[in-house]
Specification:
- With 364 residues, the protein is an alpha/beta fold.
- Helix content is 43%, strand content 14%.
- The strands form two sheets. Strands 4, 5, 6, 7, 8, 9 and 10 form a seven-stranded mixed β-sheet that branches.
- Helix 2 links the parallel strand 1 and strand 2.
- Helix 10 runs parallel beside helix 17.
- The longest helix is centred in the C-terminal third of the chain and has 16 residues.
Length: 364
């Protein structure tokens, strides 16, 4: 849906009537690293006349720790939906004023229905982008280590110690996000990836311990450059990040090929959500920012830069054809049916995850 001048005036009038006129003060945004379009910030500053202070993080746990301290000073933050559900229940976010967000009409109704399982009534969050977890591969190095005919579309590539051991010399990177890795491992073990059974997590931990000697690093942001530069040949990562690595390798004239694979058995699927903290200094400007991101040209500009698919239906026509047709970025229907959405988990399971994760990383 195109936003007409009438709609813009209506949103502004509503702001004024509610006493929410955005001040000239800075808008403080806290978002994932490598997750913004080239002109997103400048475009908003020009359109809204508001200066943006933009900070980044590389894991949901980092964001959560910052938010739980209180008075973090941010107007917009972007948690993943399963984390957002717990944080909203803890009273961290304020309800959205949807009258100020006419561009919500651009969002995919099916996706909105899916994230409503974590955010009933879509009360607190607005989808920013979505993604899958999978395998980022330096095809040249992986095939050199395993053979040209080695199957690359299975989680066995990660969880079979015999195979992973052959890749240690060229570098193996693992996401430093317990929720994602445990979900992947539970799925591999044919268990519920959103299990609430402590015994399942202990079994997953034992499986991860077997491959721990071959993991070079735990990393949720720097692995992009490591994969692009040839410092790792296998990375358990997020779909858009692998796309960024592929572009950086190509731009640098690297001779090897970077690929992203969603294993045929299935993989996690998640949605990052724009939210407004309860103590946001400038909630009016926060609503303006969210509505700006939902403009089709702005949403497409983000996807074209970071390779994370937009949930904005009109924007998809503006996404570069090479990205829109990439099955790793926009999985076909048959692959979508194999994906599973990460769900919020009870506090006791989260504590168990974190304790086991610390033991895994430290080797204790």
């Amino acid at each position: 849906m195109r936003v007409t001048p009438t709609l813009r005036r209506l949103a502004s009038a509503t702001l004024c009537c509610l006493g929410l006129t955005a001040q000239a003060a800075e808008l403080h945004v806290y978002n994932w690293s490598d997750y913004i379009g080239e002109q997103t910030i400048a475009g908003f500053e020009k359109q809204a006349g508001i200066k943006v202070k933009y900070d980044v993080y590389d894991s949901d746990d980092t964001l959560q720790a910052k938010m739980l301290t209180g008075r973090a000073g941010y107007d917009v933050v972007v948690p993943t939906s399963n984390y957002m559900a717990r944080q909203a229940a803890a009273g961290i976010y304020q309800p959205l004023n949807k009258a100020l967000l006419p561009n919500l009409a651009n969002l995919d109704p099916q996706l909105m229905k899916m994230v409503a399982s974590a955010d009933p009534g879509n009360k607190y969050g607005v989808p920013y982008a979505w993604f899958t977890d999978g395998l980022g591969l330096n095809l040249n190095k992986v095939k050199a280590a395993l053979g040209n005919d080695a199957p690359l579309d299975s989680w066995d590539l990660l969880f079979d110690p015999a195979r992973l051991g052959k890749l240690k010399s060229c570098g193996v990177s693992m996401l430093d996000q317990a929720s994602d890795v445990f979900a992947i491992t539970l799925h591999y073990l044919h268990k519920d990836p959103n299990s609430k059974n402590p015994a399942d997590y202990q079994a997953a931990f034992e499986t991860l311990k077997k491959i721990r000697p071959y993991i070079t690093q735990f990393n949720s942001s720097g692995y992009i450059n490591d994969l692009a530069n040839g410092d790792v040949c296998l990375a358990v990562g997020w779909s858009g990040d692998i796309g960024i690595a592929r572009r950086r390798a190509a731009d640098a004239g690297k001779h090897y090929q970077i690929a992203y694979v969603i294993p045929k058995s299935g993989a996690p699927f998640s949605v990052d959500m724009m939210t407004i903290p309860k103590d946001a200094p400038n909630p009016a400007a926060a609503h303006q920012w969210i509505n700006h991101i939902l403009q089709p040209d702005v949403a497409a500009g983000i996807t074209n830069k970071v390779f994370y698919p937009t949930p904005n239906i009109p924007a998809r026509k503006l996404v570069q054809p090479a990205i829109a047709s990439d099955a790793g970025i926009y999985p076909p229907p048959a692959v979508m049916q194999t994906l599973f959405l990460l769900q919020p988990l009870p506090t006791d399971i989260l504590r168990l995850q974190n304790r086991l994760w610390t033991q895994l990383k430290t080797g204790r």
